[in-house]
Amino acid sequence: MMADVHDLLDLKIRELAWFMFGESAKTSFAKGLILYMIAYDIEPYINADAFDSTNSERILFDVVWELQTNQRFIEDFGEKYNTARTKDEVTQKRIKDFITNPIRDDDGNIIKEGIRVEAHSTQESVRGRTHGSMRPGFVLVDDFETKKTLRSEAATNQIRVHIQEFKRGLDSARRRVIYLGNILSEYGNVQSIIERAKVDPELRVRIVPICQGALMSGLHTPSWPERWVMTDEEAKITGKVSIEAKRRSMWTPEEGDMDFQAEMLCQPIDESKAIFKREWFQTIEWEPLMQKRLAAYVTIDTPSRKEDGEVTKDSDYVGICINWIDREGKWHLKAWREKLGPTGIIEKMFGIYNFLIQAGTPPVKFGWEDTAFTRGLEPMLRHEQRMRQMFLPLTWLKHEGRSKQDRIRTGLLYRYETRSIYHLQGECKDLENELVRFPDADHDDTGDATAYQSDIARPAGTEKPRDPRPERVIDTPYGKVKPAYEDELVDDGPQFPDIGI
Question: Would the pTM of this model clear 0.90, i.e. be above it?
Answer without folding.
Answer: no
